[in-house]
Amino acid sequence: MNRLQRRVAALLLAALLAGCAAKPQGTVVLLPDADGRSTAVSVKQDEGELLLDKPYAAAQLTSRGPLTSTSSAEQVQAQFGTALAARPLPPQQFTLYFVEGKDEFTDESKRAFDGVFAEIAKRPVPDVLVIGHTDKVGTDAFNDALSRQRAEVVRKALVARGIAAENVVVVGRGKREPIVPTADGVAEPRNRRVEILVR
Amino acid sequence: MKVAFLLPLRCAWLALALAIALPAAAEIGQIKTRKGQVSVERQGQLLPAEVGMKLEAADTLKTGADGAVGITMRDDSLLSAGPNSILSLQHFDFDATTSQGRFDAQLQRGTLAVVSGRIAKQSPQAMTVRTPSAQLAVRGTDFVVAVGE
Does any domain span residue A5? Predict the structure, then answer.
């Protein structure tokens, strides 16, 4: 073997070793955000780090660190279709409003309630949190009771339409968490509400 | 003789460890979708996974060749795994009032789709997904991960 041959052999060996070393270990793909917000994932291996910050930016995980690549909707569907199809429905949040000092829905919220029920009914195992609030008219004790009562009204209405009672958790927060900050004693319709989280 | 002497002591430690661990078993999420064969490994036991099942920290989900599973975590993160996957919910703590917390999951095998929730939104870096060779820091996002070639 002359010097040149030896050098070529050494290079081939190095290339072979490098090829072996860069064993594929996985893939990470950033997907477009459903609400169009900007998102990012940083991919870190002992050998290096990559930031994915554009839709379909991808990292190939290898034994030599992450390698930049690009994926597509079709490729993602082919590899991850089953995982994506198993994704639960995204949690939804609703707000319903009440008549001053009472546990009665406003007319508008009476109509909105159907939408809440429909969203819950779509889910095989709904998990619902109902948080009652009041405006700042009245004492803490009065508003704590009223906020709880408002949340209870929502729960009863849901149960009456067939939602299992154990899937609905009720909380009253009184006048502590107004949406619109006001002085004490101020009547504010936007604060007389229940927030409903549906998961 | 020495072993026989030590064994009850070890059992006592184990019992103590369990006694401390058990009351802390709070719900961290729930199985919302399931297809094919899926099981949950909890404290060494393999349980059949059902829709509606409540999950606890340190649970590991395993899907068969025909399996898939989707879970909603208490912070509204959505995780779903495809066939032949092993997903461990290694650590989860979450304060629903402040949205502070920490979530570490590991995909040992298979495919996983993730929409991060309130923990990642509140504090970037507070949610990580690991694979056997990589660590993903999540900054409020929707992504997929596969382990293998």
Answer: no
